[in-house]
Amino acid sequence: MEWEVVIGLEIHAQLATKSKIFSGASTAYGAEPNTQACAVDLGLPGVLPVLNKEAVRMAVKFGLAIGAEIAPRSVFARKNYFYPDLPKGYQISQFELPVVGIGHLDIEVDGEIKRIGVTRAHLEEDAGKSLHEDFHGQTGVDLNRAGTPLLEIVSEPDLRSAKEAVTYMKKLHELVRYIDICDGNMAEGSFRCDANVSVRPKGQEEYGTRAEVKNLNS
Predict the structure, then answer these.
(1) CA atoms within 13 Å, Cβ hemisphere of 209
(2) 3-state class (DSSP) for residue 172
């Protein structure tokens, strides 16, 4: 029996805004730990988020670049989970009504053009960062990154090889840098990728059991 792999990618691009998505705190990289996290980023009582208009503009710019549907109305929601670097206990994200809808990106593999569907691209806030070095068996938490605007770009499961997946990711990396919405610095975590992978007998329509591989570039 011949098998084929089915891959879909979720790419997180940090948007190149000067301030965070729901606060006026700086997004500059490399500051001393916990010096760029304000009360809004920490979710302290009495604070309210205010959406960064520049982040929305960048998301719309990306949507237009991939020929996607732009929602006239989009909605944010709370994604609840517990992790040490998520100070509020939830992440503000989008689910039912994302800002960018169905689009596509064409890639070239072995001289052939293949169209990869983009399911959606939605805005959300980044979490903080766990630090494991120089703590002598303990873990530190730096919340400077908490609240940094992310554009999560979700592809359709249209990729059929690791080569296609790499080509798609490189093309997307080039695009977000070209339209100047993300610096694409993978060493600093500005462009990150999760892969959803399954296998199935070749020719079968039904997808196999999906496994998600997180943070492939970290």
Answers:
(1) 0
(2) helix
